[in-house]
Design a protein that fits this description.
Mean pLDDT: 84
Strand content: 5-15%
Number of domains: 3
Number of strands: 8
Structural class: alpha/beta
CATH architecture of the largest domain: 2-Layer Sandwich
Largest sheet: 6 strands, mixed
Low-confidence stretches: 231-236
């Protein structure tokens, strides 16, 4: 009883131990214009044959029927729209939240099935992105002639302490290989069944650790090779850098400079957006910290998805690699990228003749594509066209606001699948806005 209630006062109190009959159905608990109904109707219109074709349960045969892929698809799409990115949290919501219960309709789900489906749906979502945007392009609602490309770095599911140098990884790999050999030898010599099962489990764990260490060592070698290729042909000594390191937790993650100025393990998510409609027409994931080598990758992706390359690309100053701009010029694509500003001289300092001569030599070596780029970005109408790129920051803010702050999966393919869920959720809202008759 709450404090302060005086004697003789009559109030309505809850009665929780009273038995009662209640009638109703889940469909009556959801409003006719609820978002979950729109998501379900949209999923029902999709071609999910890639999931239905692998189901072996058919009429007339024994076996437990699996969960309808349409249910799992709707659960994850609606959860992404609501900012839910955890399979365990989604499992609890399917038991307590009315909207998620309405999607399930009495079908039980667990976090293992939800997590597996989220990753397995990656190729289907990638194909859905291509087909849905192709339909909007054919209807002249979305354009791919002029696109904006930008990268978003998302924290990886790997700690900074999981990174080891190449020499240390070699030592750990050798120790893990010796442990695996020892466990396998004991496993063959011990006839005890109970002990044998424990040894098999220990051997599997040791082999998994050995595989992670091998992947981390290969990642460190790949970083070392990329640094070596990047310093070739520069004509000057490379800067002294720390020894390349690989993560024993997520070998494909890389240390990147984040928006707050810190350095953390992360992945680089590349969005290709139509400035006119705001739809994301292309998406990919890379572990390259710099965007300077991503311009032509964006052009090639659009050509692969839609069979035609864009005529112009809008990108921020991080895409100002001269080699990429030259390749785009050869491919017939105009790059609208800010020209790096000239460093201001110190007040009263005399001009450096050597620096001026070096700059003149560098300009003389530039190809026609880079020269055309400099001339293009010196014109005011082209600067105004470039400013349309700022309208394409909306997808990045949208996925951030829906929970894409830190990845909970490991590996490039899993990260791509999770990113595609956010892209699909964002494009779903854009399609509802651009084509009201589809709602």
């Amino acid at each position: 009883m709450a404090l302060g209630r005086r004697a003789g006062l009559r109030v309505s109190r809850p009665v929780r131990n009273q038995m009662a009959w209640e009638t109703g159905c889940l469909d009556d608990l959801i409003a006719a214009d609820h978002r979950v109904r729109q998501v379900w109707a949209w999923v029902e219109s999709l071609d999910l044959s890639v999931f239905y074709d692998v189901i072996a349960a058919v009429e007339g045969r024994a076996g437990r029927p699996p969960i309808d892929p349409a249910i799992l698809m709707t659960l994850w799409l609606y959860a992404t729209l609501e900012g839910v990115g955890s399979a365990r949290l989604l499992e609890r919501l399917c038991q307590s939240d009315t909207a998620y219960r309405w999607i399930c309709g009495g079908v039980g789900v667990n976090h293992h099935s939800l997590s597996d489906f989220r990753v397995a749906a990656g190729p289907m979502l990638d194909d859905l992105l291509t087909r849905s945007m192709a339909a909007l392009v054919a209807a002249k609602i979305v354009g791919i002639d002029c696109l904006a490309v930008d990268g978003v770095r998302v924290r990886a599911s790997a700690g900074a302490s999981s990174f080891r140098s190449k020499d240390r990884l070699v030592e750990l790999e050798d120790a893990a290989r010796r442990k695996v050999a020892k466990l396998r030898e004991e496993l063959q010599s011990d006839p005890g069944a109970g002990t044998r099962r424990a040894q098999e489990r220990a051997a599997r764990e040791a082999e998994a650790r050995l595989a992670r260490l091998e992947a981390a060592r290969q990642a460190a070698e790949a970083i070392e090779e990329a640094r070596r290729r990047g310093t070739e042909g520069r004509g000057r000594k490379p800067k002294k850098a720390k020894a390349p390191r690989g993560s024993t937790t997520d070998a494909q993650a890389r240390i990147m400079s984040m928006a707050d100025g810190g350095y953390r393990p992360a992945y680089n998510l590349q969005f290709k957006t139509d400035p006119k409609s705001g739809c994301v027409v292309g998406f990919d994931v890379t572990n390259k910290a710099s965007d300077r080598s991503q311009l032509m990758d964006a052009v090639d992706e659009i050509g692969r998805r839609h069979g035609v390359k864009p005529s112009s690309m809008l990108a921020d100053g991080g895409y100002d690699g001269k080699e990429q701009i030259e390749k785009a010029y050869e491919a017939g694509v105009e790059a609208f990228v800010p020209v790096p500003p000239v460093k201001e001289k110190l007040a009263g300092a005399e001009p450096d003749p050597k620096a001026q001569a070096r700059a003149a030599r560098d300009r003389a070596k530039e190809g026609p594509g880079v020269q055309a780029w400099r001339e293009r970005m010196a014109q005011q109408e082209n600067i105004d066209l470039y400013r349309k790129r700022f309208a394409c920051e909306r997808p990045h803010a949208d996925v951030r606001n829906r929970g894409l702050q830190k990845l909970m999966v490991r590996g490039m393919e899993r990260v791509r699948a999770v990113g595609l869920w956010y892209v699909t959720a964002y494009n779903f809202l854009q399609i509802q806005r651009l084509t009201p008759q589809a709602a």
